[in-house]
UniProtKB/TrEMBL annotation:
<feature type="binding site">
    <location>
        <begin position="145"/>
        <end position="147"/>
    </location>
    <ligand>
        <name>FAD</name>
    </ligand>
</feature>
<dbReference type="Pfam" id="PF07992">
    <property type="entry name" value="Pyr_redox_2"/>
</dbReference>
<dbReference type="InterPro" id="IPR016156">
    <property type="entry name" value="FAD/NAD-linked_Rdtase_dimer_sf"/>
</dbReference>
<dbReference type="GO" id="GO:0005737">
    <property type="term" value="C:cytoplasm"/>
</dbReference>
<feature type="domain" description="FAD/NAD(P)-binding">
    <location>
        <begin position="4"/>
        <end position="330"/>
    </location>
</feature>
<keyword id="KW-1015">Disulfide bond</keyword>
<keyword id="KW-0274">FAD</keyword>
<protein>
    <recommendedName>
        <fullName>Dihydrolipoyl dehydrogenase</fullName>
        <ecNumber>1.8.1.4</ecNumber>
    </recommendedName>
</protein>
<keyword id="KW-0560">Oxidoreductase</keyword>
<feature type="binding site">
    <location>
        <begin position="182"/>
        <end position="189"/>
    </location>
    <ligand>
        <name>NAD(+)</name>
    </ligand>
</feature>
<dbReference type="GO" id="GO:1990234">
    <property type="term" value="C:transferase complex"/>
</dbReference>
<feature type="disulfide bond" description="Redox-active">
    <location>
        <begin position="42"/>
        <end position="47"/>
    </location>
</feature>
<keyword id="KW-0285">Flavoprotein</keyword>
<dbReference type="InterPro" id="IPR012999">
    <property type="entry name" value="Pyr_OxRdtase_I_AS"/>
</dbReference>
<dbReference type="InterPro" id="IPR023753">
    <property type="entry name" value="FAD/NAD-binding_dom"/>
</dbReference>
<dbReference type="Pfam" id="PF02852">
    <property type="entry name" value="Pyr_redox_dim"/>
</dbReference>
<comment type="similarity">
    <text>Belongs to the class-I pyridine nucleotide-disulfide oxidoreductase family.</text>
</comment>
Length: 468
């Protein structure tokens, strides 16, 4: 007889949420985690620590640059990086302890160790503490092992000078010159942190644009804002090598399309060119679990692998590598296992870049709509015309709606501006209910709020914005 209904491998946002939901629904559940703490990449070395440093470095920059303009005279702020890192660590600690508490509260058995799947219904756990092995039996296994840093061929990450996001979150000194490889979310968020704290940041990106996948107009406008802040960009450029020279680094780059090579000086190089599914040591091949060309576990629409009783969710399967996507899949899977109708709507998964200003988006981009041949209307409203933004002197950015030309159904929304990551959610709810720009335009919005720009952009779809 199986000991458990469900064993979850990995307690990142996908795994721990799946475990809690399964326990709520009465399934006897255990988790196996190989880190010393729960929360996975997101809580330990991802979303949470990066947002702590983004928050603190934003305050630092504000104190240095924006206070005087509001009549607040303070002497130039001094950075105590060790204290800022301690602030970050305290935030992480609070969050991972929160997950520990929730697992306990839901009576979930916790095994700290490395899991290997021995086949349907059998998971071997090698304990972190003493290396002892035990085999757990279960009706169902959930692979929620997440992802790891993608390596740049020929460049060795030492997490001191050549760092991944993990090292970049733990630097002990502000680098004089930081070269970021990859103008994706990690590069721009962590680049922002170190630029605000004093580094000269140059971002080298292979493509001819930043944030591939985001709406092109939004990415272009965001790049201009970042350049104004002092970011240097080398687009359409590839890194061919990183060499240590004395105390510094020499980064060799050349145009992606071919051309003359160049060498950039750096104190630290951040490699942020994406992440790859993490399945090392899980025993997938032996268990016969299929993976795709990129090493991701292949699942059907109910998250089942090709092997009965084995499921997978989160970063280890296809789709956006986002914590909330992993969480929602965890909920859906647990509900399906408990005989309910678990479901994730992949058309309404918001994405947020937590820089200043923030960039938030949901649904389709203009490029995607054009490619799909869908006729659409655009409604745009700039924050320069929003009263609250004006009075707070934070007018960079805009809200952009994309609505079906025939039905007015909202197909996408893209926002650049402070708090965009909070503002996007009213559009997510609207889209979840199949709403139109007219629906949003007729919804009363409190004044004075930045969210009025969302309503005005919805009005602008029919060219009737009031304040622009
Ligand atoms: P993970 O969080 O990676 O968890 C997997 C867990 O499985 C890990 O704890 C691992 O130790 C464990 N594990 C692996 N193999 C085994 C094994 N064999 N046995 C036992 N345990 C195992 N996403 C957002 O939505 N918002 C953000 O702001 C954001 N910021 C990020 C910032 C950074 C710097 C990074 C790197 C990522 C960020 N992400 C963000 C992405 C987010 O962290 C991931 O999408 C999310 O963590 C995926 O969750 P998961 O549960 O699938 O996997
Ligand atoms: P990413 O996929 O967002 O960006 C990687 C960038 O590197 C791309 O622009 C790509 O074109 C470029 N690139 C790839 N190879 C290159 C090369 N050889 N030379 C130069 N550029 C190259 O990946 P990133 O930023 O590493 O983030 C990984 C994952 O973590 C993402 O999937 C993201 O969703 C998630 N994440 C989410 C955050 C959020 O939601 N706020 C924050 C941080 C990470």
């Amino acid at each position: 007889m199986a000991n458990y209904d469900l064993i979850v491998i990995g307690t990142g946002p996908g795994g721990y949420v799946a475990a809690i939901r399964a326990a709520q629904l009465g399934l006897k559940t255990a988790v196996v985690e190989k880190r010393a703490t729960h929360g996975g990449t997101c809580l330990n070395v991802g979303c949470i620590p990066s947002k702590a440093l983004l928050f603190a470095s934003e305050k630092f920059e504000e104190a240095g640059h924006s206070f005087a303009g509001m009549g607040i005279n303070v002497s130039a702020p001094k950075l105590d990086l060790a204290a800022m890192q301690a602030f970050k660590d305290k935030g992480v600690d609070g969050n991972v302890k929160g997950v520990e508490f929730l697992l306990k509260k839901n009576k979930i058995d916790v095994h700290f160790g490395t899991a290997k799947i021995l086949g349907t219904g059998k998971v071997e756990v090698t304990a972190n503490a003493d290396g002892a092995k035990q085999v757990l039996e279960t009706k169902n296994i959930l692979i929620a092992t997440g992802s790891d840093v993608a390596q740049l061929p020929g460049v060795t990450i030492d997490e001191e000078k050549v760092v991944s996001s993990t090292g970049a979150l733990a630097l002990k000194k502000v680098p004089g010159k930081l070269v970021v490889v990859g103008a994706g979310v990690i590069g721009l968020e962590l680049g922002s942190v170190w630029r605000r704290l004093g580094a000269e940041v140059t971002v080298v990106e292979y493509l001819d644009r930043i944030l591939p996948g985001m709406d092109g107009e939004v990415a272009k406008s965001f790049q201009r804002i970042l350049a104004k802040q002092g970011f240097g960009f080398k687009l359409g450029t590839k890194v061919t090598g990183v060499e240590t020279k004395g105390k510094g680094l020499k980064v060799s780059v050349e145009p992606a399309a071919g051309g003359e090579a160049e060498v950039l000086d750096a104190d630290v190089v951040l490699v942020a060119i994406g992440r790859v599914a993490y399945t090392q040591g899980l025993g997938l091949a032996e268990a016969g679990v299929e993976t795709d060309k990129r090493g991701r576990v292949v699942v059907d629409k109910h998250y089942k692998t090709n092997v009965d009783g084995i499921y997978a969710i989160g970063d280890v399967i296809a789709g956006p590598m986002l914590a909330h996507k992993a969480e929602d899949e965890g909920m859906a899977l647990a509900e399906t296992l408990a005989g309910k109708a678990g479901h994730v709507n992949y058309d309404v998964i918001p994405g947020v870049v937590y820089t200043f200003p923030e960039v938030a988006s949901v649904g389709k981009t203009e490029e995607e709509l054009k490619e799909a041949g869908i006729a659409y209307n655009v409604g745009k409203f700039p924050f320069t015309a929003n009263g609250r933004a004006k009075v707070n002197n934070t007018t960079d950015g805009f809200v952009k709606f994309l609505a079906d030309a025939a039905t007015d159904k909202v197909l996408g929304c893209h926002i650049i501006g402070p708090e965009a990551g909070e503002m996007i959610h009213e559009v997510c709810v609207l889209m979840e209910f199949g709403g139109s720009s007219e629906d949003l335009a007729r919804t009363c919005h409190a004044h004075p709020t930045r969210s009025e720009a969302v309503k005005e952009a919805a009005l602008a779809v029919e060219k009737r914005a009031i304040h622009f």
